[in-house]
Amino acid sequence: xxxxxxxxxxxLREKLQNLCVENDVKLFLPDLKYCxxxxxxxxAIAYYYILSGEGLADLSLTAKPVVNI
Length: 69
Prior knowledge:
2 helices; elongated; single chain; mainly alpha
């Protein structure tokens, strides 16, 4: 099963479909209209953090992705 914003990636959908056919695995893909990201949810929670006085990180915060393979 694929869900969320990543499910809208056409190349990923194609690759998964091919892999599932090759391996006799049933794949569940939602319609594209249901493949959304969570940006609105993040914005909403940020609003409540600001209202509560917790504030947000300053501009010195940087992303540090980690890939574990």
